[in-house]
Amino acid sequence: MNIIAGYLMPHAPVMIEEIGNSQTEKIIKTVEAACFVGMEIEHLNPDCIVLISPHGPVFQDAIFVYDFPLRGDFSDFGAPDIKMEFKQDEILKEEIIKVAKRNNIPVVKSSEIPLRKFGVREELDHGVLVPLYFVSKYFREFKLVVMSFGLLPYEDLYKFGTVIKEAAEITGKKIVVIASGDLSHRLTPDAPAGFSPKGRLFDEILVKHLQNFDIEGLHSMDLSLIEKAGECGLRSIWIMLGSLDGLKVEPKVLSYEGPFGVGYCVARFLPLGEGESKLKELYDKRMKEVEKRRQKEDPYVSLARKTVETYVKTGKIIDVPQGLPEEMLTQRAGVFVSIKKHGQLRGCIGTIFPTRENIAEEIIQNAISAGCEDPRFFPVEKEELPDLTYSVDVLMPPEKVKSKKELDPKKYGVIVRRGKRTGLLLPDLEGIDTVEEQLEIALRKAGISPEEDYEIERFEVVRHF
Q1: pTM value?
Q2: Beta bridge partners of 108
């Protein structure tokens, strides 16, 4: 076995005594567990450590591999004297990239993009430095490969983990894989990302799945729960777990704490021998979920999907099909079409008031716009079509409100206006739980300052998904 261990390690700078001072004592179990990991890695004596950080550049559809000199310090956290530098394992890095390309997983090296042009420094981030601070206390004789995950589906991240495993086997190197990541950032009212009761639940479920090495359970976690938890470790975890695919694994959660509103978990996964691969099972489950979703589509959603699929494949706009419900052919309304890919927004365009002869034509026009003309995203490509989900919101006529007390982000969408500037936000969106959050986003979309005078309207929708 070339993958000799996998670890989950948090990256809170407060874990380091020179930075945290007295606060470090509040997470002493986390610190002790991190030190244990360092000592155990020294005993394992790997040739290379592969570390996945959530705080490097993150691409929508690609893994980012650090290609610059691997050095950094803790200047941003008031400790510039703590400097770290590591040797890059060029052979393993290039083999990982080569194997990833064979498996159709896009990889971008930092040398291929002008990081400084985008204000990104070519130095290691704290997602790398904190875990390796504890490793380096006990073990220095290793080379390093560092990457940050992409916003790929979890199955593809798991598959990338198998790429790391294959590259390790090809090069003959003994590898330790570290997933750097904190859990929920919403555990308490003073938490960095604000409080959500879902934060603690997310951490409890995730830690349980890690303790049991339950890949299927992890894959079945509710996407809305993940979204509301405000975590930054799950995608790193998926890559690390993928590197252990096909192996029998002894899991152990070494510690879990969350005194600062953020969940810190240290866990270790030791391979014991050959086991069963979960990769095909994960992809099969994904395809079954897509098929199940298609079977449940109502005519509104089905029309939006077929419109996008036809336009992307052929460049043609479909005609209004036969057999639609009468209200889609005789009624007029504003319509928003939203497209998601693996739980992430992929496009959303709509009309506040009707612009077409009927709702069906409104859906067709806005579905094409959402898929191919939303300026926030590249146009949808053919390869993405099986992974897309759609929702259609049919808007009721808006009405003016005199007070914010008349708003409810779960029931009503909101429109803000000042002159020609207009911002709209649909109701019942994940992560938007208060009127203040709803108005803040709508104002930002409109380019209206909260200090300006502006009008507010509310509207209801009939949502199809």
Answers
A1: 0.83
A2: 64
